[in-house]
Amino acid sequence: METKKSKKSTKDSNGDGCWLLSGSMPLAFGCIAVFALLVRVIVSLNSYSGAGDAPKYGDYEAQRHWMEITLNTPAKKWYQNSTVNDLTYWGLDYPPLTAYQSYAHALFLHYFHPDSVALFTSRGHESPKGKLLMRWTVLSSDVLIFFAAAIYFVIVYYANRGKNKQQHMTWHLALILLGPCLILIDHGHFQYNCISLGLTIGAVAAILSKNELVACVLFSLALNHKQMSAYFAPAFFSHLFGKCLRHRNPLLRVLQLGLAVVGTFILIWWPYLYSVDTVKEVLSRLAPFERGIYEDYVANFWCTTSVLIKWKRLFPTPSLRLFSLSATLLGVLPSMVQQIKAPSDLGFLYALLNSSLSFYLFSFQVHEKSILLPLLPATLLALEEPLLFRWLTYFALLSMFPLLCRDRLILPYVVLLILFVLIYYIPGIRSTKKGESSPTGLKKLVMILVLLCSFFLHIVYVTLRPPQKYPFLFEAVIMLLSCSQFVTIAVYSNLKQWMLESSIWMEKEKKVQ
C-alpha cells in the first residue's frame, strides 16, 4: 500500500513527467513566462518590416517616427499636417493612447540614444543600438501588460474548476503566451498589438470576475490604443447590456458603466477636446477610407470575392462603406441578440470570437495582421474548443505567410509553428481537454486534404515564381484557402453560441424536475 501511494504521489508531483506541469503554480507560471520571454528575444534578433527598404521602410519606421514626432512636437500637433509633421510620411493613424505610448518610449530612446528620435535627421534610422532599444520597448510592453493580463485571465477562468485544474492552467497559459502569430507580428514584423490585446484580456478577466466597471475602463483603454479593438465592442456591449437588464436597478447600472466609459475617453482625449475641429482631425486619421475597402491580399470576404467581383471598380467608396457596414452589422447581430437574451461567461467568449470574425471578414480596410483579434478569443476558448483553436491558429499563420516572407521571417515562422504543436500536444494534457474529439469519416478526410494543400502552398510560395501574367497568384490561392476556413469557423462558432442557450434551458428544466 505504501509503495502504491508513493508511486502515485510521485506521478502527481511530476505532472505526468512534463516540466510544464511540475512544481507549484507560481513556479510553473514563472517558468512559462521566462521561456515565453526568451522566445520573444530570439525572434526579435531577426529581420523586421521594411528593414533597409528606403525611402518609407515599414512598420518599424512608422513606430519609430511616431516616437520622433511625439517627442519633438506638442500633443495638439500630433495629428495635424505641418512642415514639421508630414502626415504623408507615416502620420499617426491610431488613437491618442498609442500616441502617449510612443511618447513614453521616445523618452526612453532619447535618454539612451538621442539620435534615434532626433527631428528630421532620424528618418530611416536603423543603427544597432537604436534597433536594440526599439525591440526592448516591445518586450517591456508585452511583459508589463500582456503577460500580466494573461496570468490574471487564467487565474480567474479556472477559479471554480476542480479536476486537472493545475494542468489546464499551465497548458492554457503556455498557449496564450507562446501564440506564434502575436510573437511573429510584434517581435518580428514589429508592432505593439500586445498592449491593446493585453488590455482586452484584462477586460475579459474583469468581466469573468464580476468587476464590470474595471472591465469598462480596461476595454476603453484598449479602444483608445487601437481602433481595431472595436472588433470586440459588440460582444462587450451586448453582454454588459444583457446583465444590466437583469440588475435590480437597470438604469443605475447602465449609468455607472456609461460613466466609466465616458470618463476614460475624456481623460485620454483631453488634449484634443478644446475644439470640434481638432477632434475631427484626429478622427479623420483613424478612419482612412481613401485607402479603399482592402489592401494587399487579406483573407476576408471583400478581397477574396474580388477575384470574381471587382468591388473597387464597380462601386464608389461611399457605397462600399455602406455595404461593409451592413454586412458587418448582420454578421454580429445574432451573437449580440443571444448575449442580450441570455448573457453568460462562456457565451461572452463565443460572442467575442463571433464579433471579431465578423469584423475581420466584412469590415472596411482590414489588414492581414487583423486576424490577431479573432485569434485572441479563440485562444481564450482553447480548453472548450481545442480543435477550433488549433485550426484557426494554423490558418491565421498561413494567411500572414506572404507578409512574413517579405519580412524574411520564414525560419521563426517554422520554429514557432513546431513549438505551438509541441505545446498543444503536451503529454498528460491532450486526453483531458474538455472539447477534444477526433474528427472521423468525411470530415477527417476533408481536413487532411486541406492541410496537405496548405503544406503544398508553403513549399510552392518559397520555391517557385508565379506566372508573369498573374504575379500574385500564390497570394490569391493562400487567401482563398484561409478565408474559406475563417468562414467555416464563423458559422460553427455562431451556431455553438446559440446552442449554449438551449443547453442552459435544458439544465434548468432538469433542476426543476
From TrEMBL:
Parts of the chain that traverse the membrane: 20-43, 136-159, 171-190, 196-223, 251-272, 346-366, 410-426, 446-464, 470-492
Entry's Gene Ontology cellular component terms: endoplasmic reticulum membrane
GO molecular function annotations of the record: dolichyl pyrophosphate Man9GlcNAc2 alpha-1,3-glucosyltransferase activity
Compartmental location: Endoplasmic reticulum membrane
EC number(s) on file: 2.4.1.-
Highest taxon listed in the record's lineage: Eukaryota
Pathway: Protein modification; protein glycosylation
Protein name per its UniProtKB record: Alpha-1,3-glucosyltransferase
Species of provenance: Papaver atlanticum
Lineage: Eukaryota, Viridiplantae, Streptophyta, Embryophyta, Tracheophyta
